Amino acid sequence: MNSPLKSPLKSTAQTPELVDKFGRRVDYIRLSVTDRCDFRCVYCMTEEMTFLPRNQILSLEELLQVARAFTELGVKKIRLTGGEPLVRGDILSLIQNIGQLPGLEELLLTTNGAQLGKYAAPLRAAGVNRVNISIDSLDAERFKRISRVGKLESVLAGIEAAREAGFDRIRLNSVILRGYNEDEVLKLTDFAIERGIDIAFIEEMPLGEASDHNREDTTCSNDWVRSVIEEKYELINSTEKTAGPSRYVQIPGQQSRIGFISPVTHNFCEDCNRVRVTVEGRLLLCLGNEHSVDLRAILRDENCDHEDLKQAIIAAMDLKPERHYFYDRDHAQPVRLMNMTGG
Ligand code: SAM
Ligand code: SF4
């Protein structure tokens, strides 16, 4: 392919590295395997959603090829996400294949947990190291209000199945929203501690418009969430450097780590090591910006081969913006909802 995107590899080492123009090395991708979901969480989706037609989404073979290209370019960690990854047909075969890619060190999955009762053990067997399970309330009615359609009991059963399946780590993800669940910070923390699993609190991000609330009214800062936890527990900043956006703290004598993902109040872009691929095959260089490259066009162009795909990914690194500007009125805000972005 005679592509203007082509540029030389940025490393002389044997495994090429993906490095952006700010010197950040990208070794982590979040691969969205579907935009669909069996929930309709108020902060993520609108109630009436139109999903992508089948011909616009990457096939399982295309998803595997994308994953292979990235691992050949030095990516060591892949998180499968969505939408809800467990609603994608034949997801286990994709996971098995990705799990065997040379160079991949960690295969992770983010899920709403509703189908983990059925999937936890096979996922573990297929090579998933760690799972993140989203849960925003421990009250069944509230859980339904936030997820619009989800059943708390299925997620609780999914968490238990994940514990039994023996993943290296399990982390709960909770988005705390004023007016919905801000009084459950300690309840959710205790729930994680009692089970010896981690929990991360994620600030609501302005990705697309929420249809049931104004995000500026509901977003709770993680400084506030932390102060609530500190009313009960001593928190010690962890020195452990993780390869994700979470900042972890520990409670003396407890196994659980508490994470804070604070994209709104604490910009963590300077350490950003990741990019996303949407299920349409759009390589998104930043969660909060629209800079992207259409990998599907390359995958489906009969004049392009796997090398062209890799070259396009390498060249795309130059498009990675320095940072996002959530809630900055001088900068355009993303119109894409989270299910299209890949959380
Ligand atoms: N369906 C799976 C799940 O819910 O875990 C995976 C996809 S979901 C988009 C990934 C994560 O993004 C979830 O933990 C969810 O709570 C979070 N999320 C979705 N929309 C968000 C938003 N606007 N701001 C912050 N987090 C959001
Ligand atoms: Fe579905 Fe996850 Fe979005 Fe909730 S956060 S609607 S479970 S994709």
Helix content: 25-40%
Strands of the widest sheet, in order across it, are: 9-10-11-8-7-6-5-4-3-12-13-14
The proportion of strand residues reads 15-25%
- Oligomeric description of these chains: single chain
How many independent structural domains? 1
The main β sheet shows up as:
12 strands, mixed
Structural class estimated from helices and strands: alpha/beta
Please, what is the average pLDDT? 90
CATH class: Alpha Beta
Q: Element order, helices and strands?
A: EEEHEHEHEHHEHEHHEEEEEEHHH
- Based on CA atoms alone, the radius of gyration comes out at 19 Å
The unreliable regions are 1-13
The span between the termini is 32 Å
Question: Given the C-alpha coordinates, what overall shape results?
Answer: globular
Known CATH architecture? Alpha-Beta Barrel
Q: In the CATH scheme, what's the topology name?
A: TIM Barrel
Total beta strands? 14
Small molecules in complex: S-adenosylmethionine, iron/sulfur cluster
Treating each run of at least 4 consecutive H or I residues as one helix, how many helices? 11
Under CATH, the homologous superfamily reads: Aldolase class I
Structural overview:
Helices cover 29% and strands 17% of the residues. It is of the alpha/beta class. A twelve-stranded mixed β-sheet has the order 9-10-11-8-7-6-5-4-3-12-13-14. Strands 1-2 form a two-stranded antiparallel ribbon. Strand 4 (77-81), helix 2 and strand 5 form a beta-alpha-beta unit. Helix 1 packs parallel to helix 2 (91-99) and helix 2 packs parallel to helix 3. The longest helix has 14 residues, at 152-165. The protein is globular, with a radius of gyration of 19 Å. The model is unreliable at 1-13 (pLDDT under 50). Iron/sulfur cluster (SF4) binds next to helix 11.
